[in-house]
Structures are given as C-alpha cells and as structure tokens.
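Pasting as-is:
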Amino acid sequence: MLAAAIVLDATMAEAEGPPPTFFDPVVTTSPGISREMNVLLDHARDSDRTLTFLSARLQYPVASWLQLSLEMPLGFLDRSEDSPRVGAGDLLVGTQASVWTPREWPAQVDVGFEVALPTGDRDVLAGSTTVRVFIAGGLNAGPIDLVGNISYAWGLTGPAQDSQLFQASLAAGYRHRWLAPFVELVMTRPVEGFDQRRAQVALVPGIEFYLSANLSLSVGVQLPVGSPRFFDQRVMAFFKWPF
C-alpha cells in the first residue's frame, strides 16, 4: 500500500487545485487526508442484549497523502438475563493513504489498513486481535457525493479468532448549506468463523449537520433488510472536529 502511494504521489502533486472533500457517512469510510479529532457512537440492539461503544479517535497526517489514526473505545453491554457490564474496548491503530486523485474528475481513492489490539474486556465482547484492509473511493457529482468502500477483516486471537468478514458499502449524500441528508447500502458477508454464512443487507438513512468552526455531526440508523439479522437496529453517530 505504501509503495503504491509513493509511486503515485508525484502524479497527485501535479493535479490542479486542492483534493475533493466529501460528506461523512456513519458506516462507509470517506476518502481524504485530514487532521481531526472524532467522537464515535455505535449502539446495536437485538432481542436479548444491547451493545454500545463510545470511542475517541485522533487522526493525524504525516504527509500530504498519508495519515495515521488511533482510536480507543469504551464498551457497555446490557443483557436481559444479566447485570450491565462496562469495560474497555480494543485499541484500534490505523493508516490511510491517498493513491489516486484524477485530474479530470473531482474524485479520490484511498487504501487503508487497521489493527485492533486485544486491550479490551471480554465482558463487553472485546479482547480480540483483528486486521482489516479497505479501499475507499469518492466522487463529487455536483451537490451529490458518492462514497464507496470494500473491506476484508481477519480475526487472529480472542473471541474473534479464525473469523473472516467481507463488507461492501455505497453511500450517497446531498450537501445543502448546513446539512447533508444521506443514505447508505451496506452488505456484510461472513466468510469464516460464523454460524451464519449468508450475507446481511442493510439500509442506513442519516443526516450530517455542519456546525460552526468546521465542526460536523453525522447520525444514522442501520436497518437490516430481510434475513439473516446480526442485530435488530443499530444507531451510529460521528462527531468531527478538524484542527
């Protein structure tokens, strides 16, 4: 990934104007290299439990085409037959590189790599080592942004050991003044390590609010379509503070 980014860096430097910017969905990762602080909420509910993760993430560029990130979550698990549990989640270390910004189109393609370290408490279903690779692409089509992802994750140790998960998503958002309503289509398919191997499809309607001082808040609800269902409902929020 880094070799490809270095080779393409000279081509990107010749592109006219700044790179394009995109809205922020809650499931799909937007391309772009930026310095920012984020607060993320992930609240999932099914028939017998709710699992909530609240995370703080620092994202910092080390080059015009490369950024590093560090994310630490706190988990809350509430089972119907047990008392609520609170514990640390798994520390997430990641990198994202811009590898293609075409001159002819306001578009960008990034590649990324993330490692979750087993720092979390198994009482909140954490404590696994996982690796995830992804491709993120975006296109400005007038007031409409199109953003898409493809990712693959491997579980190496802990509760997620020997699991593999493929995910693809596509998001469209309409940016208008101080808000951007959006919708995402997400397909998640277990490959190994799951009782259910069928793909889950979900829709994510949401909205991003552009606040003062470049702050923004995205909120969305992930709703499974058909079966199987890994959860009944999932509410996600993403607060961004560029600095």
